[in-house]
Structures are given as structure tokens and as C-alpha cells.
Amino acid sequence: MASASPPPPRAAGASAGSLLRRRKLWVFPAVLSGLVALLLSLLYMGGILTPDSSLHRLPVALVDADTGRPPSGERQNLGARLSSAVVSSSPGEKVQWRRLTRAQAQEQLASGQVYGALVIPSDFTDSVRALAGGSAEERPTLTVLTNPGMGSLGSALADQVAERAAGEASRSLGERLVAAAGGGADAADRLLLRDPIAVSTEVGHPIGPRSGLGLSAFYYTLLLVLAGFLAGNIIHNGVDTGLGYADSEIGPWHSRRPTVPVSRTSTLLVKMGMTAGLTVLTTALIMVATIGILGMDAPHLPLLALFSYCASLAVGLGVQAINAAFGGIGQLVAMFVFIALALPSSGATVPLEAVPEFYRVLGVFEPMRQLASGVRAILYFDARADAGLGRAWVMIAVGFTAALAFGFAMARYYDRKGFHRMVPRPE
């Protein structure tokens, strides 16, 4: 009976302890991971910590509908004087007051061009006159109109700005009323006259009840970007593994397929083609989950489906182009381009008017800003082009063109220079 063959000898190798003592082994991961952690912390937290102090020309409508006759000896009625006081009370670099008619203000609320509105009613002068004469049944009331489609924080900032301005104007008017009343008013009347204006808050442009208080547009956009980013990287790694340019390792199983001779340009074409095909699947599943299962409010479904596909595809093509150009660190570069820099400059949670200048500059070209504006327009503002949808389509087209041009230019350049990825080996 033949004896059993001895087991193969174990390959000698370095121990974990000896490897951990190699300083050079630590340098690259330590520098790169530390730099990523530092940059992410500065980028994310730097954009949200000081929205009030970072305000820069937040657009708020100011409607003076007062039709009362001016007080004796005055050229303007109290509504005109109050609106001038509101504008002068808020620094111009922080708030952009837009003097509009009620119809114009409603139009800009419905197109997402203002975050809110302060409305002076048509009977304001007459109400103040009656209050000063002691015959008023209730205080004159200004109305603050909110715009929840612009995000809960943006609408809240506009609400705060409008109420603060109304309060300051009320106290200024109160001083004049108290002085005019002199000693003829009792203590209760003087207390009322010191702060004569009440403020009520109403929704200026309502959105659906299943809209996350105006945050569903942001999170839906985030899903589109993440789907494009992750699918792009999965396709990139999967194609490289399938063609034999990368190892396949799942748990303890490791394999390496025979290398298929193929140029960088052809490989990129395969990856982009697969990205275009699989984006149909990912965007369809996003819509099934968010709309079909969770019931998100989503009008204009065909348009939303087309926009979702094009938006996620633009991100996926950009990921493939960056990976083709930067190789092994391409996924990290793409993460900064499409996520790390894009989230704080999207303007979807914190308005760009309430972040430092650096983020406002990023918002001009960062993809999530453009895509969030388009999704917001479709979900909340009746798919109006002037609500951000027109610009979003233009920037998607720019993204397509830039990804294809940059990716194939770099791939062809590497091919012409003979920078082959790997020498093919026989099967």
C-alpha cells in the first residue's frame, strides 16, 4: 500500500510583528487616511456651523399692499414707511429684500426664487390709525409667508429674518405712536402702542405631506449620486477583475483570471457602456423604493424618471473618466469630486446664501448642486425651468461632455505613450 505523500511545506514569510515594525509600511496609509479625515472634517463642519453669520444676500420678498391714505402732513402711508424701515434694518449684504407685488411674490415663491416673504396688508395704515385712536379691536398684523420647498433651514432663516425685521419696525413705529399719544394714554394703551404690530406665519407655497419637510429632494438627489458613484466603481472593479487586470478575492478564495489583451480606450468604452446600461436598473429601483414602497410625493413621474437616469449616469460616467485618468487613487479622487466637496456645497440642506464664500464658489460647478436644483424643481415647483430645472439639464449635458472628453482623452494618451496596464499572460 502506497504511503501518503507528505503535506506541502508552509511558505516562509514575514511575521505580522516584523511587518508592523516597518516604518515605511505605515507612511502612505497614515498620511492619506489622516489627510482624508482632516479634509472631510473641515469641509462638512465648515459649511454648517455658522449659517446666521454667513448669510449673504438671502432673497426674501417684501410686499407692501397698503392702500391707506397717508397721515396728515405725510407723503407716504405707513406701509411704505414700514417697508423702507424693514429694508434699512437688515444689512444689504445679508438679506436681499425684493420689493414685489403680492402676485409677483407668489410667483417667485412658486418658482423657488425666494425663501419667504413679508406681506404688509392693504389696511395697515387704517389699522394703525384705529389703534392709535383707541378704537381698534385687534393689532395690525403682518404676514410672513414661508417656502418649505426651499428646505426647512432655508425657510426657517427667511422666517427669522422677516420676523426680526418686522419686530424692529414695530418698535420704531411704537416709539412714534407713544410720543404722539403723550400723556393721554393710560399704562395699558402705552404698552400696546410700544409694540403695535403682530406677526402671523403662513405657508406661502405648500408642498406635499410626504416630502420630508422639504428634505426629500436632497435625499433623493443623494441617492442618485451615490448610486452613480458606487455603481461606477463596482463596474470599474468588476471589469478589471473579469479581464484579468485585478485579483478576485472573496473571503478565503482568491483567483486571477487570464489577462485579456485590450487597450485602455477599449476598456473605458466597455465600462461606460455598462454604466449606461446598469444605470437604468439602479434608478428604476430607487424610484420603486422611494415612491412605490415608501410613498414619497413625486409629481411628473416620467420627467423624474428621465432626469434621474441622466443625473445618475452623468455621475457614473464621471467616475469612470476619473478612474481611467488617475488609476488606483481614482476612486478617492471621485469621492471628493462627487461627495466630499459636493454635499456641503449642494445648497439643499443649508442654503448657499448661508455658507462661507468657498462653498458658494463650489456650488457653481459641483454636480450635486445642479442635480438637487433639478430634483427640487420637479418635486416641489411644478417642473419649472426657472426653478432650477433648466440649469440642471444644461449642467448634466456639460457633465456628459466633460466625462467623455476627459476620460477618452486620457485613455488614448496613455495608449499612445505605451503605458499598458499589464503585460498579458497566456491562459
Keyword list:
alpha/beta; abc type-2 transporter like fold; 14 helices
| Number of distinct helices | 14
Strand order of the largest sheet: 2-1-3-4-5
Number of domains: 2
Task: Let me know the largest β-sheet.
Answer: 5 strands, mixed
Report the sheet-strand fraction. 5-15%
Which structural class best describes the helix and strand composition? alpha/beta
User: Radius of gyration, rounded?
Assistant: 31 Å
Spell out the helices and strands N to C: HHEHEHEHEHHEHEEHHHHHH
Mean pLDDT: 89
How far apart are the termini? 37 Å
- Uncertain spans: none
Can you tell me about this structure?
There is one protein chain. By secondary structure, the chain is an alpha/beta fold. It folds into two domains: 58-203, abc type-2 transporter like fold (3-Layer(aba) Sandwich); 212-416, no CATH class. 56% of the residues lie in helices and 8% in strands. The protein is built from 14 helices and seven strands. Strand 6 and strand 7 (253-255) form a beta hairpin. It is elongated and about 110 Å long. The mean pLDDT is 89. It holds the Pfam family DUF3533. It is a multi-pass membrane protein.
